[in-house]
Amino acid sequence: MGSVSLKVGDGTARFKRASFCSSAVNVLMLFSVITTNLFALYAFTYSTKKDSQTTHLILHHTQKNISLISEQVSLILREIESSQKKLAQMEKELLGYESIDLSKPNVANELKVFLQHHLLPLGKDSRTGITEMVASVGHSCEKSTDLLSQYMNYKVNGPCPNDWILAQKLILKGCEPLPRRRCFAETIPKVGLQPFPFSLWKNVSEKIYSWSGLSCKNLACLNSKKLNRDCAGCFDIINGYETQKYVKGRGKNDFLVDDVLAMGSGGIRIGFDIGGGSGTFAARMAERNVTVVTATLNIDAPFNEFIAARGLFPVFLSLDHRFPFYDNVVDLVHAANGLDVGGRPEKLEFLMFDIDRILRAGGLLWLDNFYSSNEDKRRALTRIIEQFGYKKLKWVVGEKINGAGKSEVYLSAVLQKPARVR
């Protein structure tokens, strides 16, 4: 077997050299490990610090962007809310009645009740999309709140006050349409009415008319006055000029009914008379199987009741009101000095556009003795008419001597509406 030498000489020397080398290596390895760990720790610490700073910067910018976006969204929402409020206010102003201050102490309670919104009984209407009914009242009623409140001050389910003059005053002030009322209108017995067509030229008892608020209290008084340019003795349908009007002319400006109807090539069936006096034009047309609706007010005379007593159809409205007819349904529009709107061309233009709206293509516009006080007025009317492109079937400018012996210029014309293609 082998043996281990325990001699001090060689063995001891070899052991010392081995221990020294091993210790050096161990120290070097330990230093390397420590150095490596230190570098790793430094690197890790530096990287963590750098990542932390980067993360902090990213979070800071993100928060800043989110804050900026939030501010922008809030601004947009505020703008939308402001726009909705403005649109709602504009809608209220357009409706008109929302601008009426109902908090005033003198506002009638019935007016407040009428102007309330009323929900539809079955909810939203599938065809129109509306959910509530809005009361119809003229926008200009706001300017006459006191008169409107007086008009709406009555006993519910009782008799209406005899205030038709107040109603007409409101209409002439632009308060049209008037609000509805929950009272019963005064009933006047209509005795002695004649059957149609005898009613066209027969007088009836004067007791069937309402004379309250009028200076005249009978037909004789009315016939002694010139109520307007189109009504001088126009209530005398027995012996006066009304019996010859439209069938026998007194001058070149007086067109005859049969001549005008012939221009319509037999297509005149329904018509609209603006400011038709006592209804004589409608009566002449009724004799020729043409139905005419007459628009009139009761200025100084019971025009509406008198026209109705003749078996004709009156409509109580002013020329400021949009005509209550659908587009392109009327064959003939007859107008005399009702077109005179105080010398305001823009108002006349609006009126002419509404006439054009209801008149069908090929229909006739008959201007009957329109008073031209001066050349400028006639030129303005001519310019407005020409912009519609109507065909002039007949155009006559003539003079008449008035009651004071002075010469006056009148325009009479028959115009045909063209068929316009979009």
Automatic annotation (TrEMBL):
It is found in: Endomembrane system; Membrane. One of its GO terms (biological process) is methylation. The chain crosses the membrane at residues 24-44. Keywords: Coiled coil, Glycoprotein, Membrane, Methyltransferase, Signal-anchor, Transferase, Transmembrane, Transmembrane helix. GO terms for cellular component: endomembrane system; membrane. The keyword Flavoprotein does not apply. The keyword Cell wall biogenesis/degradation does not apply. This is S-adenosyl-L-methionine-dependent methyltransferase.
